[in-house]
Design a protein that fits this description.
Blueprint: E1 7-9, H1 18-28, E2 35-36, H2 54-64, E3 72-74, H3 87-106, E4 111-114, H4 124-140, E5 147-151, H5 164-173, E6 180-185, H6 186-191, H7 199-209, E7 215-220, E8 222-223, E9 234-235, H8 244-251, E10 261-263, H9 274-283
Parallel strand pairs: 1-10, 2-3, 3-4, 4-5, 5-6, 6-7, 7-10
Antiparallel strand pairs: 8-9
Helix pairs in contact: 1-2, 3-4, 4-5
Length: about 290
């Protein structure tokens, strides 16, 4: 009997149950992994870890038989290690990312997904060098065991990390490469201009440039945009430009067998679509017009 796909989605971390509630939400979707933010992704306001029902959450993870090494935390969007224009914002990003690593470890988890950053019109080369500088400052005195998974980006605005070569550059130039990996995002890769219609070819290309052994997580998203749009707008599975069949081929690909796959698809009718999407992926079968029942 084949092992089940490692599938989950973004879940909330909200009162009153916080971390325990995150686990319960994931299980309600039929997931065996999940991804959360330790606070609002748009700001730096964070509740003390001691108030997040961490031990109850850890116990629920153990009771459900989930593997904590496959559960993901996503860093907030406000972190920008690529900023060479505003030193205060760069320094604040370094400081905040250090604290996030500590919070991830306190949750008993080991992977933090991070958008590499934006060069803010200073140019890609300057942005990449600044990201490396920031990551090295973060890791210089870090005492955690958390790995940072650099996310492949869509290339909107002045984002860095939209090409495999840029991701490779970051991995090659950090001082502690063993503490870094990659989060592949299907929507972002297509929006960045890559042809993802042939998973074997795309994964082979990624392997040549970056190395599939560096992949720590995958975001599974359909896209509202055509290839190369550089817009980064997620869509529900089967309702976008990529289509369910192609996404299923990534989720079930043997070269990604041990990689946790996380859905970040949008709510529909103000409801999370994850139970339905996870069920379709586990069955390997798309249900036409599945959103009509939501």
């Amino acid at each position: 009997m084949s092992e089940p796909l490692i599938l989950g989605s973004h879940v909330s971390l909200e009162a009153p149950d916080y971390y325990l509630g995150s686990v319960k939400e994931a299980l309600s979707y039929g997931a065996n992994t999940f991804m959360l933010y330790t606070g609002a992704p748009q700001n730096s306001i964070r509740r003390p870890v001691s108030s997040l029902k961490v031990e109850e959450g850890k116990a629920a993870i153990k009771d459900a038989g989930l593997d904590p090494t496959k559960i993901i935390v996503h860093a907030p969007y406000i972190i920008n290690l690529g900023n060479t224009i505003d030193p205060s914002l760069f320094e604040a990003s370094v400081t905040f990312l250090k604290r996030e690593l500590e919070r991830v470890e306190a949750l008993g988890l080991g992977i933090l997904v991070l958008h590499p950053g934006s060069h803010v019109k200073a140019g890609t080369e300057a942005g990449l060098q600044q990201v490396v500088r920031g990551l090295n400052l973060v890791m210089a005195d870090d005492k955690t065991h958390v790995k940072i998974a650099l996310e492949t980006m869509a290339g909107k605005g002045s984002e860095v990390g939209a090409t495999f070569e840029e991701i490779r550059y970051l991995l090659d130039h950090v001082d502690k490469p063993e503490r870094f990996g990659v989060c592949m995002d299907t929507c972002h890769i297509s929006d960045a201009g890559y042809d993802i219609t042939d998973p074997d070819a795309l994964l082979a290309q990624f392997d040549r440039v970056v190395g599939l052994d560096h992949v720590l997580a995958m975001h599974v998203n359909d896209s509202k945009n055509v290839r190369g749009a550089h817009k980064d707008r997620h869509e529900n599975l089967g309702y976008g430009e990529l289509g369910f069949d192609i996404l299923y081929r990534y989720v079930s690909h043997p070269r990604l067998k041990n990689v946790p796959k996380i859905l970040e698809t949008p709510y529909f009718n103000d409801k999370p679509p994850y139970k339905e999407e996870i069920a379709m992926l586990r069955a390997g079968k798309f249900i036409p017009n599945w959103r009509d029942s939501m």
